[in-house]
Amino acid sequence: MDPVNMKEVQEALDSFKDKEVYLHMETTNGAYASHFNDKFFSAGAYIRNAKLSYERAKITGPGPYRVGLKIPFGWVYAEGITHYEIDSKSRLLLAGHDYDGKLAVALQLSETAFE
Amino acid sequence: MEKEQHVLVVFPHPDDEAFGVSGTIASHINMGTPVTYACLTLGEMGRNMGNPPFATRETLPNIRKHELKEAARVLGITDLRMLGYRDKTVEFEDPDKLIGQITDMIEELNPSLIISFYPGYSVHPDHEATGEAVVAAVAKLPAGQRPKLHLVAFANNTIDELGEADIVHDISAVADQKLAAIKAHQSQTQYMIDAMAEGLKNKDPQVMTRLTFEQFYTYKL
C-alpha cells in the first residue's frame, strides 16, 4: 500500500459509482486492548461483502483522510484513512494504519466478492 | 515431561502455538510422539501491517498461512490441519459444528493429551470459543476414555481465580526451536524477535522465563 494520493483515490471511487459493488469495512482497536489496559473501552465494527451501490463518493481531509459514500437510503463513511492500493483485481483497498503500523480502519470496494 | 501417545493441539490463530506451547510441542516431537495441530483460522484480522505496510487486509491471510506452515516445519509438526474458520467469527458459529470436528479428530487420532485454551481465562473471543468447544468435545466422551486437557490461561484474573499453573515444562533444551517458531510468524512478531534474541543472549530474566518455561492448567471434568 502507498500513502493516500487523493486524486487517484477519488478517481477510483468515481469508477465504482452507480455500480453494484461489494464493501468490506472494519474498525478495530485489537482484541487485546482491554487486556493490556483495563480502562480501555474496546469497540469495533466489521462488515464483509455487503452489496451496495452509491451515487456519490468523496475523499477529503488533510490526512489522515475521511471517505464517504452516499448510498440510496443513507451513508457509509470511514475516518483515519492513511493508505491506499488498487490491487491486481482492480479492488480499491483503503486502510488507516496507526503510528505503529497497525490497521485501525479499512474501507474496501470490489466488483466481485472478497474471499 | 510425560511420554504421550499422541498430542492434539487446537488453537484458533497461527502464532497461538508459538508463544505459549511451541517448546512443549517440540519436546513431544523430539520424544517421538506424533503431534497434530488444528488451527481454526488464518488470523485474517491481524492488525500489524507494518510501516511502511508490507500487507493488506486481503494479502494477510496467505502470508500467515505460509508462516503457519513454516512454524509447523521448524517444530517438526507433520500433521497440520487448517480448519477454514475466519478470524474473530468463531464464537458466532454453531458451536456443535466445531465440537463435532474436534470429536471426529479425537476418534481418528486417539490423543492421550489435548492442548488448547482455558475457557474463561484466555482473553480473545476466538480463544474462548475454541477452549469451550474442546472442553465440550472431551466432556462428551465416557469418563474412562478422556484424553488429558492441558490448557493455557493468561487472563489478568487467572492467578487470583485458578491459582498457579499445575503443569510447568522446562523447555530450555528446545528454546532455539521455540524462538524459530516465533520467528516464523514474522508478520506478527518482527518487532519482538530482535529484542527476544538479544534478551536470550544477555540472559534477560523475562525473556529467559518465556524461553525456559511453559505453563498449563490441567482441566478437570
Automatic annotation (TrEMBL), chain A:
InterPro entries from the UniProt entry: DUF1806, YojF_sf
Highest taxon in the source lineage: Bacteria
Protein name in the entry: DUF1806 domain-containing protein
Organism in which the protein naturally occurs: Mesobacillus campisalis
From TrEMBL, chain B:
Gene3D superfamilies: LmbE-like
Any one GO molecular function term: hydrolase activity, acting on carbon-nitrogen (but not peptide) bonds, in linear amides
A Pfam family it matches: PIG-L
Name of the featured protein: Deacetylase
PANTHER family: N-ACETYL-ALPHA-D-GLUCOSAMINYL L-MALATE DEACETYLASE 2-RELATED, N-ACETYLGLUCOSAMINYL-PHOSPHATIDYLINOSITOL DE-N-ACETYLASE-RELATED
Required cofactor(s): Zn(2+)
Classification via SUPFAM superfamilies: LmbE-like
Naturally occurring in which organism (per UniProt): Mesobacillus campisalis
